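Forwarding the complex inputs:
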Amino acid sequence: MALANVCGLKNYSEQSGQMFATRRLIDRPNHYSFGTKIQEFAVPVGEEPVGFLKSCNTEGGARFELHHGTTTLSFKFKHGVIVAVDSRASTGSYIATCEYNKVIEINPYLLGTMSGSAADCKYWERLLAKECRLYRLRNNHRISVAAASKLLCNMMLGYRGMGLSVGSMICGWDKEGPGIYYVDDNGNRLSGRMFSTGSGSNYAYGVLDSGYKEDMTVEEAYELGRRGIVHATHRDSYSGGVVNMYHIQE
Amino acid sequence: MEYLIGIQGPDFVLVAADNVAASSIIQMKHDYDKMFKLSEKILLLCVGEAGDTVQFAEYIQKNVQLYKMRNGYELSPSAAANFTRKNLADYLRSRTPYHVNLLLAGYDDADGPGLFYMDYLSSLAKAPFAAHGYGAFLTLSILDRDYKPDLTREEAMNILRKCVEELNKRFILNLHSFNVRLIDKDGIHDMEKLTVGAK
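Prediction (whole assembly, two chains):
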């Protein structure tokens, strides 16, 4: 802090950093660990991710087009949380598969949806699942939805500007009741009643907003979730396949 | 597209922020709170790039609280503002600068109320009134015209209402509700949310 700086008192973290004498980026398999004394992020030594990505996106270079080709939605209502996703995985204009599950089950009470780059989402949410499991083992109670989403958000912020593409909703039921958090690669983290992500999200919002009632029955909620995805897949060429739906209850 | 405003009176500061959290053309949240409580009598209002705002504001918030824990007394608003500016300046020429625009409002028991304007280039100015966002272009002139140093709380609220009306009339984006808070010697008070009907 200011007073400490003026008095010449060094921070603890600066001192311990000097003891270990390394603050460089290291490429190692198990690179992202919480609680280490040194903050290290895995980037290949000598590479500069931001510059590399710029070269790929300019004319004349190989073009990496990162599409968020998906529709996912989730909303809270009286009887819990509904999560609905489409199942199309596309690479540019080629459909890689129509049967991709874009929801990762972190534990029986916590789900993560995926939109954006399939590889990024799958990897980071599996890492989140590992951290949630470790939390459960260390603290003897399940992690809250807010804390899980904060963990994912901090992971995203660590790699800010390096071209990650993740738009995820962490949905679950914890001590505070149902919770939905939207987390994306910019470091946005928003808590809310209803979110939709991906290229088809605009279409899904239209259907959801006009059909939503807090006191819907369970059947009506299933129908609303299904309709949201169906209308989005109808209009958006990057969404399609089947509708995968989850209902989170207490 | 986001809007912040602060008005300083003789013994209070009135601040307001809009409630919209947007992602390109979609309003993702309608009731988002952009004010961060740094201490009992200091508020930090923060707008700007998506992840940066919360990250930077929480960083400042936790450090101000840490200072209180380590030293036993709270930072004054002026000291907190300068600390915030220093952090912005340190990161400005790094690989990851924080693109945030801030208003820091506080009440110091010794110096009275204070409103500090900071922007993403880490400038700092203590001002009697200030605003951020496109809405500022429309409303700063209203503040110039109607502000006087010995405002009462009622008069400050009226100026705020005038500003919000102007935004509703001329600003193309729909900012339909605003969080309002008042800071005085008794701490931070939540005022009634200002909502505007459809145009």
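The domain at 4-195 of chain B is CATH 3.60.20.10 (Glutamine Phosphoribosylpyrophosphate, subunit 1, domain 1).
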